[in-house]
């Protein structure tokens, strides 16, 4: 960022002339406040800020120049120097000697001329448009004559900041009229090339540029005041050198340990707190628990609280400092397990931005480091490192570490693994799941509480006077004069150092590489020793001695009290066998051709991973559940879907709901705290009831048994106190109160059968346990056995073809028939003709159909099914929900002409009277009667000829007593874009062939666990392999939307379908008077809103009021009618916003409590529905307010579903600050880019005179 004198001929250009670069835009994206501060410095309003020196940054800069020079040399060798006669070769632009207007214009002209001449490569091309100046590393000419932007980056991974720079240069090329490639490329430090579609994030760059220019103009105004730290209208990162200096100078509340930017904003808005002193002096007994904790922390940091002890020390710079602490609760200290001679102290070093060159996956744990408890306290503990520099080595390091622990536990049965913070526990879980090895060993460590997190102990028992609870801040309390020193002293520095190691290794500088590894190892060893000393110091706070406890004799546990490990925690024998094949198979050992072997290995790996899919999904839930039990209750308030009760009373005491009921229930009502972003809703059941001591009698008996097991175990360990009840809660009603985060609730509690009644009331409820999936697991186990027995070949099966990504296999060996091929049908529905022909010819295989919104996926599918049933086929219909299944069954009757007697579904549970259950047009049968119903198709004795259709769930089609293997001719998986591969494999056993109907670009498959293979991905998404539309070799893409007007369809097609989706002609003939078709944006400024916005709700009501009454014609042959409230559909991002909007609509008379009128809900409710106009309310004020992350809120899948509900128009209502944030990775940048482009290309609702289409006296519409 610099100023230039603007020539007179550019009189319209602002003076002084501010010139900025891509780096300035990056800085502005990361911290707008620091950027404006720098601008004020250059304008002379503020003194120049001297940023602290960063030797690592300087070294990185030098190495970056060397990397760039090496790449340049490669291009010189390949293309030669520039030849003016031919216009080819490498053209090198010399840097400008002066940064003045004329020089910059000349350099820009030279660069553009080199490109127009056709140079193969232009190095250091200079761009200047009067405002922006930048120099691209390389512009490389492609075969089609377009130029691709290449940039060299020392990193081994693609950074978002680098992508913004690439977009800037691509934009400059386009503005200069130079043909530019769709992709931009980073040449990384390891010489890998990472390419990205620039169109996915160009809108982010353009918006950043517009924002920068707008705020710069404001700051450069003559009457602008110098930037003030408390100017909240300017966002800031809070941690860059500029911010850190201001935080310290103003004693900002960010100095308080654990304070986030979101908490800072809340304290400012609700309590007027700005400084750490304000917070320390905050009064009030009814403050939320997180605020009380922050206040107490501030009081100790400011010296207003009396400490138990203060320690004075000298830091690395020679400055004398002190740290104080208070023991707030000694109980967690007494529960630390007794010291054991086999204890180890463990720490990972990882690089989250490392990218695997083979599969592009992110992150590596490159060092598993530990120290052993020394036999003599005067000796240095032994350091044991396990290094990993590739994905395979990471897997081996995990196995080696677990084997080391196994052997050590044999020698020291009472040993524990101590670590600081949850990272080690989480990383072990993720690594075991990702690599598919050691899962049972990790489970054992977790279930038997071998891993001990000292961070939890510290946070629940101590308060220190530092601004952080990192172990580095605690070390002065127990490390004495052995404080940190050396080249690597922080986790961030270790990541940078590891990148330095990789660069040195890859460039052949082995001495440098080994020296860097040694420094990282020293840092890791110190962390482990620090954890050892911390454990010993914590024991000493309650008069315990590690040395004495280590010397106590070990008592063997009473194995009769040890719980049996659950069977499903173990890897099965068939999984192990399949994994062995995956790891060892080769063309020589199998006799398979390389391409066939590749597909086979992929399928076998997927089957093995699917076999443990449900086990891993359960693990993720139970890990989170037991982590919660071990954590302080105060931490629960910030966890989604956890109700922490504030006031609870018995509305109706224990009773039986009916005389024949086996269990008793009671009804409770009161208020609770609920984290923003929670998805709890009326009717949710199976919630765990959580109790404080004294526990209900039956629960106290369980806790006593747990204590007995623990006390009989190694060295009298302590059991985690169980708060989880066998009682379950059903949420009858949940209402938001006027206080954010507070709700009114009414719950029904059921008591376990046989348990005596009790008076204790639960203190919280937590999410319910996963649903049992025995049928699916049994089906997958059988499939795994079949695959294992057939190796090295694969059985011919539809599900295996899908996971192997093999094209559908037809009986005649040919390719899939295409729309318009002769002889396929009567031609009335060409797509149905083609799909029917394909399915009819399947030979134990599948056909996939991707149907975007409004393309008639269910319509076409029901016609295909109807034809097959008339031909005698037995068909199953399965989906994630009964509503989806029943919708397709109705379509089979209405469109496919299938009689209701030929369709069946399971009997529904009856209520008190049969009248309570609405009638259905098909047969309802008991599940035991399914085989006989399906057999009617072949008997020839039924009065209803033809085949049969059964609509059921995965529990039906995976159950071999209901559907024998291969007993169904065709299984149709509806909404297969949400149906996981594991589920698909489980149900596929029931059928000979599969038909997948769905759209992976709509609501995604939701899973919790981590898996060695992507079996959690949807079946259709897997076949698409990252593409937004289904490759034609796998099936059919329905490319015509019968719902959306072309002006509305086009942006949806760009967002989600690579431009392949278009409107059917009928969709273009609808009319809404006084409103142009398409996507609109409505900016509603607001602050501090996370999941609900009254401001947006008010504008939604205004919008609906404006729309209702306008003349609407659904089709040319229909008369105009006034738009009714039910013709407007409102999609809100969060349930909380649904309630706020619904209340506002009811007050305005646009909706009733029975939900007639304007319809309101989340995208999950409205998938499959439509309306003339849809209004989308985003609710959140800014990224820092969002509780579930911006990737969820701006998900292109969810946006696609929301916007595509509309037939004529969609209005996106959002805060203009919502996109003012900086993503952390390329995928998140792409997500932001999709939403930003949608908004930027939309028409502003406020600015548009809504006269796009009007009716004349004869009722005709004119555009």
Automatic annotation (TrEMBL):
NCBIfam families from the UniProt entry: TM0106 family RecB-like putative nuclease
Residue intervals of the PD-(D/E)XK endonuclease-like domain: 119-242
This protein's UniProt keywords: ATP-binding, DNA damage, DNA repair, Exonuclease, Helicase, Hydrolase, Nuclease, Nucleotide-binding
Family matches, as InterPro entries: Coronavir_polyprotein_1ab, DNA2/NAM7-like_C, P-loop_NTPase, PDDEXK_AddAB-type, RecB_nuclease_TM0106_put, RNaseH-like_sf, SF1_C_Upf1, YprB_RNase_H-like_dom
GO molecular function ontology, one term from the record: 5'-3' DNA helicase activity
Protein name, as recorded: TM0106 family RecB-like putative nuclease
PANTHER family in UniProt: DNA-BINDING PROTEIN SMUBP-2 (PTHR43788:SF8), DNA2/NAM7 HELICASE FAMILY MEMBER (PTHR43788)
Domain DNA2/NAM7 helicase-like C-terminal: 1035-1215
Domain YprB ribonuclease H-like residue range list: 344-538
One GO BP annotation of this record: DNA repair
Location of the region described as Disordered in the Swiss-Prot/TrEMBL record: 704-725
């Amino acid at each position: 960022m610099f100023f230039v004198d603007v020539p007179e001929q550019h009189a319209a250009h602002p003076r002084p002339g501010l010139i900025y670069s891509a780096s300035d835009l990056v800085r502005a994206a990361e911290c707008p406040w620091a950027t404006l501060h720098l601008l004020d410095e250059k304008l002379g309003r503020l003194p120049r800020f001297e940023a602290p020196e960063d030797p690592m940054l300087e070294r990185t800069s030098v190495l970056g120049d060397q990397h760039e020079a090496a790449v340049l040399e490669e291009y010189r060798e390949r293309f030669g120097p520039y030849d003016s006669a031919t216009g080819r070769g490498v053209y090198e632009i010399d840097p400008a000697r002066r940064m003045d207007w004329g020089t910059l214009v000349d350099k820009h002209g030279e660069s553009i001329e080199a490109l127009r001449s056709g140079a193969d490569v232009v190095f250091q091309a200079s761009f200047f448009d009067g405002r922006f100046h930048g120099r691209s590393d390389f512009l490389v000419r492609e075969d089609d004559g377009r130029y691709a932007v290449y940039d060299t980056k020392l990193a081994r991974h693609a950074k978002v900041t680098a992508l913004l720079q690439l977009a800037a240069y691509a934009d400059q090329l386009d503005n200069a009229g130079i043909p530019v490639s769709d992709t931009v490329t980073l040449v990384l430090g390891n010489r890998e090339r990472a390419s990205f579609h620039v169109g996915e994030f160009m809108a982010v760059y353009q918006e950043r540029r517009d924002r920068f220019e707008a705020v710069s103009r404001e700051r450069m105004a003559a009457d602008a005041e110098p930037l003030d730290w408390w100017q909240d209208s300017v966002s800031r990162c809070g941690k860059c050198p500029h911010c850190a200096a201001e935080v310290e100078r103003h004693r900002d509340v960010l100095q308080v340990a654990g304070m986030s930017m979101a908490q800072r904003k809340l304290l400012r808005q609700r309590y007027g707190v700005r400084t750490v002193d304000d917070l320390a002096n905050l009064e009030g007994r009814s403050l939320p628990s997180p605020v009380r904790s922050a206040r107490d922390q501030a009081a100790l940091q400011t010296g207003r609280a009396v400490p138990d002890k203060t320690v004075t020390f000298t830091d690395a710079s020679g400055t004398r400092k002190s740290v104080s602490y208070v023991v707030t609760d000694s109980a967690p200290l007494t529960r630390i397990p007794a010291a054991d001679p086999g204890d180890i102290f463990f720490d990972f070093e990882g690089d989250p931005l490392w990218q695997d060159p083979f599969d592009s996956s992110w992150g590596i744990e490159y060092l598993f480091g530990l120290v052993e408890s020394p036999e003599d306290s005067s000796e240095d503990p032994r350091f044991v490192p396990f290094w990993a520099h590739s994905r395979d080595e990471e897997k081996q390091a995990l196995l080696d570490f677990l084997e080391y622990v196994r052997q050590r536990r044999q020698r020291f049965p009472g040993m524990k693994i101590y670590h600081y913070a949850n990272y080690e526990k989480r990383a072990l879980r993720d690594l075991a799941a990702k690599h598919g090895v050691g899962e049972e060993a990790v489970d054992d460590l977790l279930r038997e509480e071998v891993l001990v997190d000292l961070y939890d102990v510290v946070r629940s028992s101590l308060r220190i006077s530092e601004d952080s609870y990192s172990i580095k801040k605690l070390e002065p309390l127990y490390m004495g004069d052995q404080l940190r020193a050396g080249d690597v002293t922080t986790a961030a520095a270790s990541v940078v150092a590891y990148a330095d190691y990789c660069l040195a290794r890859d460039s052949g500088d082995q001495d440098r590489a080994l020296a860097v590894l040694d420094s990282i190892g020293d840092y890791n060893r110190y962390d482990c020793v620090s954890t050892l000393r911390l454990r010993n110091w914590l024991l000493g706070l309650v008069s315990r001695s590690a040395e004495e406890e280590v010397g106590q004799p070990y008592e063997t546990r009473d194995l009769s009290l040890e719980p049996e490990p659950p069977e499903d925690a173990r890897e099965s024998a068939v999984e192990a066998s399949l994994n062995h094949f995956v790891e060892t198979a080769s063309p020589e050992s199998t006799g398979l051709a390389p391409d066939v072997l590749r597909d086979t290995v992929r399928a076998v790996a997927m089957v093995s991973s699917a076999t443990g899919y449900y086990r891993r999904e359960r693990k993720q839930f139970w890990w989170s559940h037991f982590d919660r039990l071990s954590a302080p209750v105060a931490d629960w308030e910030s966890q989604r879907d956890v109700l922490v009760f504030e006031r609870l009373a018995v509305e109706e005491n224990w009773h039986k709901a009916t005389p024949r009921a086996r269990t008793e229930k009671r009804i409770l009502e009161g208020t609770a705290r609920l984290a923003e972003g929670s998805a709890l809703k009326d009717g949710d059941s199976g919630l765990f009831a959580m109790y404080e001591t004294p526990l209900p009698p039956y629960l106290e008996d369980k806790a006593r048994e747990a204590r007995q097991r623990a006390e009989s175990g190694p060295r009298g360990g302590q059991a985690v106190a169980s708060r989880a009840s066998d009682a379950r809660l059903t949420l009858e009603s949940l209402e938001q109160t006027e206080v954010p985060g507070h709700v009114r609730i009414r719950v029904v509690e059921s008591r376990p059968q046989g348990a005596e009644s009790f008076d204790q009331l639960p203190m919280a409820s937590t999410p319910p346990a996963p649903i049992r999936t025995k049928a699916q697991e049994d089906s997958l186990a059988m499939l795994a056995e079949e695959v294992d027995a057939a190796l090295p070949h694969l059985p011919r099966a539809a599900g295996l073809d899908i996971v192997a990504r093999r094209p559908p296999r037809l009986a005649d060996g040919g390719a899939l028939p295409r729309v318009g091929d002769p002889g396929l049908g009567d031609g009335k529905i060409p797509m149905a003709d083609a799909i029917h022909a394909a399915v009819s010819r399947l030979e134990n295989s599948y056909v996939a159909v991707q149907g975007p919104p409004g393309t008639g996926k269910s319509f076409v599918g029901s016609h295909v099914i109807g034809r097959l049933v008339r031909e005698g086929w037995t068909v199953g219909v399965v989906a994630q929900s009964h509503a989806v299944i029943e919708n397709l069954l109705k379509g089979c009757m209405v469109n496919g002409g299938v009689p209701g007697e030929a369709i069946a579904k399971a009997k529904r549970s009856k209520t008190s009277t049969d009248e309570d259950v609405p009638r259905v047009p098909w047969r309802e049968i008991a599940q035991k009667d399914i085989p006989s119903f399906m057999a009617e198709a072949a008997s020839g004795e039924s009065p209803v000829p033809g085949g049969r259709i059964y609509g059921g769930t995965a529990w039906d089609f995976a159950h071999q007593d209901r559907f024998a293997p291969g007993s169904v001719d065709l299984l149709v998986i509806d909404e297969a874009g949400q149906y996981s591969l594991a589920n698909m494999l489980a149900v596929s056993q029931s059928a000979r062939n599969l038909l997948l109907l769905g759209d992976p670009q709509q609501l995604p498959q939701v899973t919790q666990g981590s898996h060695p293979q992507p079996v959690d991905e949807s079946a259709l998404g897997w076949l698409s392999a990252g593409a937004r539309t289904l490759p034609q070799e796998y099936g059919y893409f329905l490319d015509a939307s019968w719902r959306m007007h072309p002006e509305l369809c086009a942006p949806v097609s760009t967002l989600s379908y690579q431009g392949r989706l278009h409107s059917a002609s009928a969709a273009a003939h609808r009319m809404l008077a006084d409103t142009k078709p398409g996507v609109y944006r409505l900016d509603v400024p607001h602050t501090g809103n996370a999941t609900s916005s009254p401001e947006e709700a008010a504008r939604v009501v205004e919008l609906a009021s404006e729309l209702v009454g306008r003349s609407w014609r659904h089709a040319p042959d229909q008369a105009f009618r006034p738009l009714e409230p039910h013709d407007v559909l409102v999609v809100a991002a969060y349930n909380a916003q649904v309630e706020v909007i619904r209340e506002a609509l009811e007050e305005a008379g646009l909706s009733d409590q029975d939900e007639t009128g304007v319809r309101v809900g989340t995208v999950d409710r409205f998938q499959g529905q439509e309306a003339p106009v849809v209004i989308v309310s985003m609710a959140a004020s800014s990224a820092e307010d969002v509780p579930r992350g911006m990737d969820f809120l701006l998900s292109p899948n969810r946006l696609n579903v929301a916007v595509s509900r509309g037939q004529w128009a969609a209005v996106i209502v959002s805060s203009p600050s919502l996109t003012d944030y900086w993503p952390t990775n390329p995928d998140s940048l792409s997500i932001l880019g999709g939403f930003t482009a949608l908004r930027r290309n939309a028409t502003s609702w406020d600015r548009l005179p809504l006269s796009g289409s009007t009716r004349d006296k004869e009722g005709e519409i004119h555009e």
